[in-house]
Amino acid sequence: DAKTTQPNSMESNEEEPVHLPCNHSTISGTDYIHWYRQLPSQGPEYVIHGLTSNVNNRMASLAIAEDRKSSTLILHRATLRDAAVYYCILFAGNMLTFGGGTRLMVKP
Amino acid sequence: DAMVIQNPRYQVTQFGKPVTLSCSQTLNHNVMYWYQQKSSQAPKLLFHYYDKDFNNEADTPDNFQSRRPNTSFCFLDIRSPGLGDAAMYLCATSRDRRRLAADTQYFGPGTRLTVL
What we know:
The complex is a heterodimer of chains A (108) and B (116). Chain A is built from no helices and nine strands. By secondary structure, chain A is an all-beta fold. Chain A has strands spanning 9-13, 18-23, 32-38, 45-50, 55-56, 61-64, 70-75, 84-91, 102-107. By secondary structure, chain B is mainly β. In chain B, strands 2, 4, 5, 6, 9, 10 and 11 form a seven-stranded mixed β-sheet that branches. The radius of gyration of chain B is 13 Å and the shape is globular. Classes of the chains: A mainly beta (108), B mainly beta (116). Chains A and B meet through β4 of A and β5 and β10 of B.
């Protein structure tokens, strides 16, 4: 399975935008880029996914580099409820394989 | 609301005593998954069902088994729990494995298993 690399942790101030990076230099042409997050003591929650074009939904935006070797999850205004572990996952019609994720801490 | 339900949320068992965790879904999804998540680690897939077709991950120990009697329910059986099996067990569903790469998985809240 193609691998992803994410920073272990990041900090943000409340109500400021957050950019969570993910490197996936071995991505193949059919791999979708998925983001899930896991709030404390809860199961993972789908955030967003994309293939080539940037994507927006009510939770976040996903910016995908032109060569697809990296992507960035953008939370436009972080709230305290966004404090979670964010997982970037490459998905190619096989199973979700979670990597280490980024622990996002949001400061009031 | 349609959802993935796991019962119980917390389960305590004794070393070597069989335990069953349950998952139900109201989403009518074809695919159901079981993940194991140990403390401070990412979830790790154990196996999944596509309809009634069972698919085991290569490194899932034989101690772990699963049953899916119907579309809505799926069970995780641990035949002889060891101390190393203490973890959060997560159930998830998705609509259709054939378009899995573009599909979404819906997770339950998990069952935290303690082995004494």
